[in-house]
């Protein structure tokens, strides 16, 4: 049986512009787009896994995010999560950010919420990786490593509305 983890590293930083979808249209925002390699780790599929095990866990709340102190296990949060190399702890500004990840060969885009840090590259759940690859996540020959475009986008793309964060508009997030 093959291991349940694919390898990943960051490839390069590219274009300084990208877009996010609001009311059916894509709007430009000033985030960087990067080509990264992504892998999966089945720990992020464990719905009862305590969120206290991820870097974005705030020990002072306790919780994953101050306004969401009821988020205690992975089953409490939206299912598509990702870990990114920049996150080093709960106070890092990349905690609870939304990332648009596109696998260009298939033209598939998914939005993932950053909840944890990784040593290199992006890491997501097997479920999210299958969604991104049309069910091919375990096909190591074709997909190792899987290079994707990754762009930080508005939280509204990750099934959140501004009021979820106590804000009136996305600009306040």
Low-confidence stretches: 1-30, 161-173
Number of DSSP strands?
Answer: 9
Strand order of the largest sheet: 4-8-5-7-6-9
Number of helices, where a helix is a run of at least 4 consecutive DSSP H or I residues = 2
Please indicate the percent range of residues in DSSP E strands (runs of 2 or more).
25-35%
Please tag this protein with its features.
31% strand, Barwin-like endoglucanases, 2 helices, mainly beta, globular
Structure in a nutshell:
With 173 residues, the chain is mainly beta. 7% of the residues lie in helices and 31% in strands.
Task: Describe it.
The longest helix is centred in the C-terminal third of the chain and has 8 residues, at 126-133. Helix content is 7%, strand content 31%. The protein has a single domain (34-160), classed as Barwin-like endoglucanases. A hairpin with a 2-residue loop joins strand 2 (18-22) and strand 3. It has helices at residues 126-133, 140-143, and strands at 10-13, 18-22, 25-29, 33-40, 81-84, 98-103, 108-117, 122-124, 146-153. Mean pLDDT is 74; it is low at 1-30 and 161-173. By secondary structure, the chain is mostly beta strands. The protein has a six-stranded mixed barrel. Pfam families: Cerato-platanin. One of its GO terms (cellular component) is extracellular region. Residues 1-19 form the signal peptide. InterPro entries: Cerato-platanin, RlpA-like_sf. Belongs to the cerato-platanin family.
